[in-house]
Write a structure and sequence with these properties.
This protein has 218 residues and is of the alpha/beta class. Helices cover 36% and strands 26% of the residues. It has a domain of 149 residues: P-loop containing nucleotide triphosphate hydrolases (Rossmann fold, 3-Layer(aba) Sandwich). It has 7 helices and 9 strands; from the N terminus they run βββαββαβαααβαβαβ. Bound molecules: adenosine-5'-diphosphate (ADP) and magnesium ion.
Length: 218
């Protein structure tokens, strides 16, 4: 039995006007620490919804969700927000870098938000960008970076706080094959090094086949 993530008998419906769309009915999921879990399924099957529920951004109708051995229904919204800040990192299909900040500032941002001193944050961010072969891009803004470079900056930003869990929503959806492979190599290296749990929605069969656990949504 998992003490890390345990979702039991989850129900989730959305209302769209008069219509009710059932996304999950008695859905179960267990994830162990350090696992790579892939979530596959066609567009509209609920991949993003599941990631949002796991990150406590979206809620659900019935069922239970235990995170780190604690029922999340015990938490207030502020507590959920703090849990998210301390334990989760996010990677999106569209990279979502802050446009008004350069690569170094983007990667340092999560540390600064958490109260790490500015000079220390920049030093750590600079080291992280080096690991991602991006030291020559520190001062570049997102419109001066290729898609693959932007996603590497986004991954550096997600892992710099050493989160317990990384939520990745189709992180290679906007990248060609060569860049996808390169970006994922950096991602897998980071999660192995820091024993980070990776939960990734993907359309890519090759990536999904590398996961320890597969969730295939209809
Ligand atoms: N906030 C919402 N309100 C109503 N319907 C939604 C909402 N979010 C998602 N949906 C619907 O739920 C279904 C699953 O969406 P989503 O989780 O984004 O799927 P996927 O990520 O697999 O493409 C879709 O039919 C979508 O239209
Ligand atoms: Mg989606």
């Amino acid at each position: 039995m998992s003490n890390f993530i345990k979702i039991n008998n989850l129900d989730k419906t959305f209302s769209q006007g008069d219509r009710r769309i059932e996304i999950f009915n008695n859905f179960n999921l267990e994830v162990e620490m350090g696992e790579f879990v892939s979530i596959t399924g066609p567009s509209g099957s609920g991949k993003t919804t599941l990631l949002q529920i796991i990150a406590m951004i979206d809620n659900f109708d019935n069922g239970s969700y235990n995170l780190f051995g604690q029922d999340i229904s015990d938490y207030s919204n502020v507590e959920k927000c703090n849990m998210r800040l301390q334990n989760f990192g996010f990677i999106y299909q569209s990279f979502n870098l802050l446009e008004d900040f350069n690569a170094l500032e983007n990667v340092a941002m999560p540390l600064i938000i958490r109260g790490v001193e500015k000079s220390e944050s920049y030093k750590l961010a600079s080291n992280m960008l080096k690991l991602f072969n991006l030291d020559h891009r520190e001062g570049h803004y997102s419109n001066e970076l290729s898609g693959g470079e932007q996603q590497r900056v986004a991954i550096a930003r997600a892992v710099i706080t050493k989160p317990k869990i990384i939520i990745a929503d189709e992180p290679t959806g906007n990248l060609d094959k060569e860049n996808s492979t390169q970006v994922l190599d950096f991602l897998f290296k980071s999660i192995e090094k820091d024993k980070i749990t990776l939960i990734m929605a993907t359309h890519n069969e090759e990536i999904a086949s590398r996961s320890v656990k597969r969730v295939d949504l209809e």
